[in-house]
Amino acid sequence: MVACRRCPRLVAHRERVAQEKVRRYRDDEYWGKPIPGFGDPNARLLIVGLAPAAHGGNRTGRMFTGDRSGDFLYRALHRAGFANQPWSRRRDDGLALYDCYITAAVRCAPPGNKPIPNELATCRPYLVEEIRLLRHVRVIVALGRIAFDAFLKAWVDVGRPLPIPRPAFGHGAMVKLPEGVWLLASYHPSQQNTQTGRLTPAMFQRIFDRACRALETPTRNRRQEGPRQG
Length: 230
Fold this sequence. Notes:
This protein is an alpha/beta fold.
């Protein structure tokens, strides 16, 4: 995955951003490559985001790391017992996940944070393979409509059925897939949503409280087990 160059527009953008940088990160060495998912390979919670941020994941080399969306996400995960700390600044900052794995619909930073349909389709096999490998997943949280739709397409590509009618995106929508897995939708924790109040910390926390109830595992049990992978 890290060596992938299948989408010319994404390759050009991620590498140009990594070379030009921004002033506040001018001394940083940017990652500038596709970003793999990370977390516990035995996770029961799977989080699917949209794509790396140009100066977040594309800079640090880890999902939701080094930007405000990540700060918003990891605070919620920490409160719910899925992370050992409420921040994610660098790949070596000590972050570890409990019973949780994080991935995205697209693995390269797209211009304007908007991947186009053929880029989503080209990147989907990576998500398909993760779904196949993450055999213990019981709850999926999809962050945003694009991630929600990307997950449904990947689920079908794995060979698993969808309920009828097809699940529709809406913040807080929760549906049980025929395989006995819960799919939970949330607005994406982008600054556009969090700074306008469309997605508040309380709204986001309720998403992960519902995920905990669906897993039927108390928060303290995850923390006592300790982080499985960072």
